Every structure is written in structure tokens, then in C-alpha cells.
Amino acid sequence: MSSGKLWNADLGNGSYRNPILYADYSDPDAIRVGEDYFMIASSFSNAPGLPLLHSKDLVSWKVVNYVLPEIPEERYREPIHGCGVWAPAIRFHAGTYYVCFPMPDEGIYMTTTADPFGIWSKPVNIRPGAGWIDPCPFWDDDGKAYLVAGVAKSRIGYKSVLHMVEMQPDGMGLIGDAVKIFDGNEKDQETIEGPKMYKRNGWYYIFAPAGGVKRGWQTVLRARSVFGPYEYKVVMRQGSSDVNGPHQGAWVDTVTGEDWFLHFQDVYGAGRITHLQPMSWQEDWPVIGIAKVDKDCGEPVAEYRKPNVGNENTSTFEPETSDDFTGNRLGLQWQWNANPCRDWYALTGSSLKLNAVKKRTVYGDMPNLLLQKWPAPEFSCVTKFDLTNLADGEEAGVISMGMRYALLTFRKDKNQLSPCFITGVQHYGKILPETTEETAQTLPQIDACHAGEISVKYTVKQTGTQDLNEREKGFPLELVTFSYSTDGISYQTAGRMNAVPGRWVGVKNGVFCACTVPENAQGSGYAVVNGVTYSR
Questions:
Q1: What proportion of the chain, given as a percentage, has pLDDT over 90?
Q2: CA–CA separation, 244 vs 267, rounded Å?
């Protein structure tokens, strides 16, 4: 497996550029343990869930594990768009790593490990029931533990409120009743959520974004007591920068005593990309980004000196994208559209074998879509297929997955392969099951007996900015193009569409193999993926 250096934040001169990750690692939280940094992010209904990223310098990050091999609860055998695992928190306490994550319909879960690169414990639902989101555990100096969390109006009927509750010291249960510690509806902090709790100089701090994902800001609360009363201050806004809605993330320090803040920015099609900001202190209030002389808060930086992490580490890397499928397990860049079945695929040592899975609904709702995040603002991805082992009625291809999705599929019909470019619409929470929501454009047939290897090129180009409505005005407008080749040289355009992100997630692209024969739950044939190569 290799990385194509699609987005390298390290400028090689002692400085870095933002974003440090041009990929949809949304709602990030991070910690430092010794000289190691670990970051986690939301994963919603994609599996495996809760990607764990590792860094030595806060600039170069790589996915090293997933906390969840699959999403808890049986219903996630099917994709439930926008549900599943929302904003998590990661902490290290008394030799144990903790990840606390919300599933807004099911409850608040806790999982632990002594080795973050290894297996995490089976999640325990420490607060069953809908409504609470964005939990963060906190252990005080006296050994007592607490949990702070926000709420989802769609599940509980109100929003912009933070609650605090005592937690068992082992993190596996809650004690007593929750206390409302902050109401953003009364404090000009509407949509305050995503709280992360810390302690410094006798102050309890809760870092919490407000104002909404696309146009919001970063707020910090502080108090002398865990349960308050809390005062608050806005500590970072977009200001004159190009970084809209800069908020929701993690305060981390270095062994040399520096403070930094990781957060996301919503850029529409690519999702919520990750930034790194310097952080300083003024009168026991944090300032995130660069403090402006005439402002009372910080603004994001585009470039800055790299953190002083106390060593001379100069290696640069990024999450994997390209894959030659020579390993003994799927690369960590891949996630399924829902909890997977092991019989969907096999690794042969030189390729990926995708078995034909019964297509029960529209393409965007197939659980066996194998997907990965967009890795850069512009890129191309070439997927090489061997489709000679498809049976009649089976198909395979490449999909671009969002609230509007598109795919190029090749269906086997006797001795012919029938290419077809299909577009569909996903609505909130669910892709509409009616097939009338999908449109298909049939392309010239290919002689299956002499087709050889078929290459599908998926290309993303920025062509301007959004102007459809005020919420997304000025955001990137990305054109996705599908083309294919039977000789790997000459490509024929199959179709195009403007990208639209998914429900809370950026667009993903990937591969699938499906069977449309009604009587079969599983097809008899398969497609072979000989490689996936990303380039600028």
C-alpha cells in the first residue's frame, strides 16, 4: 500500500499549512500520551467505526486503528444515514485509554483499552436512551469522575444545553442525576454542543462550539466548581480568515509546554476537514489562533511554525488512499456503508475479490459499498476491474456517495457488459426506496469475452463556488466525472455531477459488486479489483 502525497501539510521548512488533513475526520478529539498524539473522529453508520489516527508532531497523521469493528446494535446491518456514532471523546487515565461516544438514538457508550493500536473492549451503554450527544469524560484530582454532554433537538426536543453528571471512576456507569450547567439559548450561544472538559490553574474549562457548523465559533466556559456556575467567552472566530465556522475540537499540549487546538472546517463536498491552531492564554482564558489587536478573540492561521514537540522528527505521512490489495486485511482507508459480512469479499494476495451481494434496494442504500473519504480538494482515482467472473444479472462498478450520488456500473448480460451511469437522491436520514429517484443512462455495450481489464477513472475538480443558497454560498463547487477504458489509455466519459455531501458526512467514493437476480440472496459470481490508484 502506498500514499500518493495528495495533501501534505508539512511545508518542509519548519512550518505547516492548514488544513492539516483535507479529509472528513469530523468532530475531532485528541490527546497526548508521552510523545504520542491520538485523534478520533465521528463515523456515523460507516463501519468499521471511530477511526483512530496517530501523530508524533501534530501535523502528519495516519489512521492506525478503528475503535469499533462494527457499529453497536443490530439495525446497523443496513445503512442508516446520519445516525450511528456521532462526536466522540478520547481520554487517558491511570494507564487506560477511554473512548466515549454517542449514538443519539441509542445512548452514550464507553470502550477502553491498554493498547490503542490493539483491540478495544466491547462498548458499554452507560446512559441508555435517546437525546444526549457529544459526551466527554473527566477525572478530577480527587479521583472523582464526571461526564459532560450536549443534546440533540431532533431526539430530545430542545438544544443548546450542556449537562454534567457524576460518573463511576471506572467510566462504566453514571451516578445520580444530571445537572444543567449551561443554557446557550439564554447566553447568545445558540447550538452550543461538542463539550470537551479540562482543568488548569484551579479552573474547570469546557471548550464547546456554538453558532452552527457552517458559520459558528469556538466558545470556552470556566468555573471554580465542576457544576458551576460557569462564565463564558468566545475565543475563536473566522474573522478575516477563509476558515468558516472554526470550532469543535481538542486542546492538546506538547512536552515543551506549548498549547495547540485541533478543530474542523466544513467545506461542503469534502466534508469537515481538520485544522491545527496555536493556542495561548490571557488572564486564564485561552486564545485560539492569532489574537488580533482590535479583537477579543483569536482567528485561524493559514500557515504557522510547526509545534515544538521536543524531538527532531521530520518524517511526513498522510492517511492511505491507493491500494494494491496485497495485504492480508483491508487497508484502514476503507469503510463499509453499514456493518459488514465477511462473505462480501476476500483478499487473494494480489487483488480484492468482491462477491456479488443481492441488491435489495437502491444503490445508495446497499450495505456492501466499500468506500473511502475524499483525500484532497482535487484528485483522480483509477480503479482496475476484472469482470470476467460475473454471472448473468450481476454487476460491479464505482460509486460517489453523498446526498446526491452517482455511479458507473457494468452489468453482465450473456456475452456482453452493459455500462450504465446512474444518479440518485438521498433524503434526510434515508435514501428514498423508490427506484424512480434514480435515473440511468445506458452506454454502448462491451464484448465481455474480449474486454480484458476495465479501468474506471473518478475525477474531482473544483469549478467555482456554491451559490444555490445562503448557507453554502462561497463553498467549493466540485464536479465529479466518471470515465472508463478497456485499454487503460483511452477513456470515454460516462457522466458528470456536482458533488453534494452526505448527511453530516463528506462525499465518499468506492467500489461495489451486486446481484439483481430476484431469487438469489447472494450471487454466484464476483468481480476482481486489481488496484486503486489515487493521484493529483
A1: 86
A2: 8
Using only the alpha carbons of the chain, give its radius of gyration: 23
Contact predicate 400/460, CB 8 Å: no
Please, are residues 25 and 51 in contact by the beta-carbon 8 Å criterion?
yes
Task: State residue 90's pLDDT score.
Answer: 98
Residue 293 has a CB neighbour count (10 Å cut-off) of 4
CATH 2.60.120.200 fits 335-535, yes or no: yes
Q: Is 2.115.10.20 the CATH classification of the domain at 15-305?
A: yes
The model's pLDDT over 255-291, given as tens digits with 9 standing for 90+, comes to 999 999 999 999 999 999 999 999 999 999 999 999 9
Is residue 27 annotated as a catalytic residue, yes or no? yes
CA–CA dist 364, 424 (Å, integer): 8
Assess whether the previous peptide bond of 433 is cis (omega < 30° from 0): no
Q: Of 27, 299, 395, 438, which one is the catalytic site residue?
A: 27
Q: How confident is the model at residue 3 (pLDDT cuts 50, 70, 90)?
A: very low
What is the signed CA dihedral for 48, 504, 171, 165, rounded to 10 degrees? Answer: -170
Read off the amino acid at residue 303. E
Provide the pLDDT confidence category of residue 435 given band limits of 50, 70 and 90. very low
> What are the residue ranges of CATH 2.60.120.200 in the chain?
335-535
C-alpha cell at 75: 439495525
Q: Could you count the other beta carbons within 10 Å of the beta carbon of residue 190? A: 14
Known catalytic membership, residue 70: no
Q: Is 520 buried (19+), middle (13-18) or exposed (0-12) by CB count in 10 A?
A: middle
The DSSP code sequence of 77-129 is GS--TT-SB-S-EEEEETTEEEEEEEETTTEEEEEEES-TTSPPPPPEEEEES
Helix (H) or strand (E) holding 155: helix 153-156
DSSP one-letter code for 153? H
Q: Give the position of cell 438521498.
A: 426
The DSSP symbol for 213 reads: T
Distance CA 443, CA 435 (A): 19
- 3-state SS, 346-392, equals EECCCCEEEEEEECCCCHHHCCCCEEEECCCCCEEEEEEEECCCCCC
Among 4, 9, 65, CA closest to 322: 4
By the 8 A CB rule, do 387 and 417 touch?
Answer: yes
Q: Is the peptide bond before 229 cis (omega within 30 degrees of 0)?
A: yes
Residues β-bridged to residue 406: 400, 423
Cα 478 to its chain centre, rounded Å, is: 19
Q: Out of 10, 57, 134, 193, pick the active-site residue.
A: 193
Residue 523 binned pLDDT confidence (cut-offs 50, 70, 90): confident
Residues of each domain in the chain carrying CATH 2.115.10.20: 15-305
H or E segment to which residue 154 belongs: helix 153-156
Helix (H) or strand (E) holding 275: strand 272-282
Report residue 201 as a C-alpha cell.
Answer: 490553574
Among the listed residues 406, 388, 393, the one whose alpha carbon sits nearest the alpha carbon of residue 359: 393
